[in-house]
Structures are given as structure tokens and as C-alpha cells.
Amino acid sequence: MIKQEEHPLKKVCIICAKGAIEDVYATLVMANGAVMEGIEAKVFFTFFGLDAITKKQMSKLHTSTVGNPAMRMPGGLPFPTLLGALPGVEAGVSAMMMKQMEALDMPPVDEFLDMITAGGGEIFACKLAADMFKLEKKDLSDHVIDIITIGEFYALAGGLNTQIIFT
Amino acid sequence: MATTNIAGVNVDINEEGYLTNPSKWTKEVAVEIAKEENIELTDKHFEVIDFLREENEKGTVITIRKVGKSGIVDIKGLYTLFPGGPLKKSSRIAGIAKPSSCV
Questions:
Q1: Domain total for chain A?
Q2: pTM higher than 0.90 for the full model?
Q3: ipTM, two decimals
Q4: Which residue of A has its CA nearest to B90?
């Protein structure tokens, strides 16, 4: 049998293209988890993921209550899609979800970015998507280092034992 | 699990190098474990360690965020004190179990 040699991860480059709570938090937890393990982390927000680093939107993220088959009522009963479509339901469910995460010490997005950058993690925005949504550097969180192209992001992903993760 | 002698104390450590019984911990043990992590302990380190041990005693699930809100050190400061694995290294030096939280 060939003995596999282990090569611990040195760097993760995480791409977040969606702006729902669970997409953004998956990215944030992985990035923060990386820096806590001494792994370098670079995070690239693109398309709707930009909401997570846009000053106006970052504290107003929602989860989708329609078209989400895993969404359940408290107690475990299925959550009817038609109910999820009623005004205010999505906001209420999203607020509840944020509260539950807060109880597990998952902070609001801005504070999470504080934690990640405190550990040396770096945050970037996608140029193409920023152009598309007409966003400039000043519209984005101060934690964002720069608005860069995907080519520039790949350039940051060099080096042995680097992984690119798309959430 | 193995028994080893650190700073004159017989302690049980698990395969990842964490003490299995926090009550066996002494400051001298901390200094020796910190040396393995290439960290020289200062008073600030011990403040963090004391906080972790107290919280652990209370049964708290310790997160990096809680340490950051402890008033002892901010998160950036914690990374400076325990580079390359702030919560894992500080927990190991504090003689408590490996952190069980993802944040």
C-alpha cells in the first residue's frame, strides 16, 4: 500500500457569490475558522455575495423562505412555501435565524469581518460584479482591501497547499 | 493518552497534547507547554489563561469572540499573543480541552 503523506492546508481562497444568510455565513465561518487554525484566508465576494460587504446591506441579510425545502417550522413541520411568500415572513424568519446564530456566538456580519481581519484574513470584492451593481469602494465595508478582477484573485491563490472553495 | 512529566508534575495528555485533567495544571506546566509552542508567557498571557480556565470551570463553550469580549485583550491582540492558532494554543497552555466551537 502506498503511504499517503499529509500536507496541511496553508491557504484557503473562498468565493462567495450568494447573499442569503446561510451562504454568507458559510463563507464567514470557514474564513474565520481558517485564520483561527493559522491558515491564511482570502475571501472574494461576487454577484449577490457583495451584499455581505456592502455597508447598506450587510446588516440586512435574509434567508429565503420560498423554494427552500429544508425550511421548517419551529417543531419540525414543513414550512409551506405559500406562507413564506407572505409579507414580513421572510424578515421574521431571518431575524430568528440571526438570533439563534448569535446565541452560538456567531456575530453580525460586520463583527465577523472584524474577527477575520483581526486574524489576518483578507477581504476582496469582485470588479465585474461591483461594476454591474454600480458599487464603489466607498460603498463597501472598510474591511474590504480592494475591488479586484478574478485574475488578480487567482494570483493571490498561488503557493503549495492552497485550496479554492466556492460556497 | 500518555502520562508525561512536565515541570515536575505527572500529567496525562491526549494524542493532541492537551491535558486531560485541568486540575493537574500549574503555572510551571503552562510555561513548559508554551515553550513547545514557541511562546514566552507574559502577565497578559496569564490573564487570558486564567480567563479560559475560569470559563472552562463554569462549563462555558469558549469561543474566540468571548475572549475578545472579556476585556482582557481584543481579538487582534489574542492573535498576537498566541500566533497561528489563538484559541487552540491558549487552551492547550491553559491545560483545558481543545476548543469545541467553530468560532
A1: 1
A2: yes
A3: 0.92
A4: A36
